Give the backbone structure.
Amino acid sequence: MMSLEFYEANRRYVVAVRIRMKKLGRKHRPFFRICAVDSRAPRDGRVLEELGTYDPMIPETDARAALNNERFAYWLGVGAQMSDRVKVLFKKYGPEGTHLEARESALAKRSGPRVLPDFGAPAYVPSAEPEASEAAETSAAPEGDEAAKDKTEVVAEVATDSESAEADVAETDAGASAESTESGAEEAAEEDKSE
């Protein structure tokens, strides 16, 4: 044990070591390292040694802290003092912690595959298009003269519907282009008159 005179003579060299948390992470996503620090250093400043981590964003409460118990024992043996929050973590998850079994089960649950609950049947299932369902019904019908005629009629109706739709589109496009050329000719005539 050193004398009081030694400490007074070398006061600036004596370091009071604290074991406390150093905050990392980003806004709304904190993460902490548990470190051995000079007590005069700022919260997020220089550390002597990192002794573990604490992640409060992990859903399983008992899986949040990870401690290096050997290094904890060393720093406590040389006189380091723990902060209040680190004392709580050490009491729960240290070598003789009160929550060790819960921690093991939480870590096992966390390392296993993620299980999603069964959400049941969907609330709404869209039905197939009516033309497709009619075609499916006719294909499922027994083959015969009447069934063959029905298929032919359905296919012919679908073909005529698609042809008439294409003709309508072509007429609309032709009308629009004719209107645009007429309006262009009128604009050109107006420009000639103004000059």
User: Anything to note?
Assistant: The chain is about 50% helix and 15% strand. The two ends are 110 Å apart (CA to CA). The longest strand covers residues 17-26.
